[in-house]
Write a structure and sequence with these properties.
Shape: elongated
Helix content: 55-70%
Strand content: 5-15%
Radius of gyration: 34 Å
Distance between the termini: 117 Å
Strand order of the largest sheet: 3-2-1-4-5-6-7
Oligomer: single chain
CATH topology of the largest domain: Rossmann fold
CATH superfamily of the largest domain: Response regulator
CATH architecture of the largest domain: 3-Layer(aba) Sandwich
């Protein structure tokens, strides 16, 4: 009996010791983990505060540069387009901010925009009645793409010569163009706000650019902050000067300088080599 009681007491003592050991060990480990976590949190908080302070500094510097750009714009573009008339060509649903920036930049430089022509996309040429009317208008029997190119050529011709402005009204009635403003005479150059069909540039944008370049009529392709880089890259590959981010002060300045006669590809996107044109040689 004594031996059995001794064994039971011994077993209880062993298990009790194990339990106490586990409890003490867990407590020590937990204290160590908590201390380590507190140290990590303190380090992260310090890093966050440093990043926050740096971001504040960078935002302040960015705001200062934006103010500088806005306030210096008149010194850079005033009078550069005096007595010049510019047409704007775009799609049926253009980026309003980009369009407004073109108007504002040209006006600030002393130029005028008498007319904006919205070019319809490929869907307008899917209507057999439209194709039939275009064939009658031009006195031809052509397919969809050929008629589209003929429309583009006529738009360029009227911007360049204003010899038969009424045809633009007819094209507007057929739904392949839309005019805002009045074309009363030839314009000096045109600004194309891309892309008319960003996902099918070869169907509309590229043939339109070729209509301008074939006629030797000055054209600049511009994009807003919403315009994909691929649009202006394609434009530049097809031989026209480009300006991205026209909805910013540097973009407006570059656009005006290109219209004045400084060709190139400007902005901060993939198609650009500089922000603005180089100063003329002394």
């Amino acid at each position: 009996m004594l031996d059995m009681r001794y064994h039971v007491i011994s077993l209880v003592a062993v298990f009790l010791a194990l339990g106490i050991g586990i409890l003490l060990g867990t407590t020590i480990v937990e204290r160590g983990l908590i201390a380590e976590q507190k140290a990590q949190i303190k380090s992260l908080r310090k890093t966050f505060d440093e990043i926050k302070a740096k971001n504040t500094q960078l935002n302040d510097e960015l705001d200062a540069y934006k103010r500088y750009a806005a306030e210096s714009r008149p010194y850079m573009i005033t009078g550069r387009l005096a007595e010049r008339t510019v047409a704007v060509v775009t799609g049926k649903n253009p980026d309003d901010k980009g369009l407004s920036s073109i108007y504002d930049g040209v006006a600030a430089a002393g130029g005028a925009i008498p007319v904006t022509i919205d070019i319809a996309g490929s869907e307008a040429y899917k209507d057999p009645a439209v194709l039939a009317n275009l064939n009658t208008l031009f006195g031809v029997q052509s397919d969809e793409q050929a008629l589209r190119e003929r429309v583009f050529a006529e738009v360029v011709n009227q911007l360049q010569t204003a010899s038969n402005i009424g045809i633009l009204t007819t094209l507007a009635q057929l739904g392949v163009v839309q005019m805002r403003g009045v074309l009363q005479g030839p314009v000096s150059e045109a600004v194309l706000l891309g892309g008319i069909e960003s996902k099918a540039l070869d169907k509309t944008d590229v043939p339109l650019i070729k209509a301008f370049t074939s006629a030797g009529f000055p054209l600049i392709g511009v994009g807003s902050s919403q315009t994909p880089d691929s649009v202006l890259v394609t434009y530049s590959k097809n031989g026209v000067s480009t300006v991205d981010h026209v909805d910013t002060t540097p973009g407006q300045v570059a656009m005006v300088m290109v219209l004045q006669g400084a060709p190139g590809n400007y902005g901060s996107g993939k198609s650009a080599g500089r922000m603005i044109p180089e100063p003329p040689a002394p």
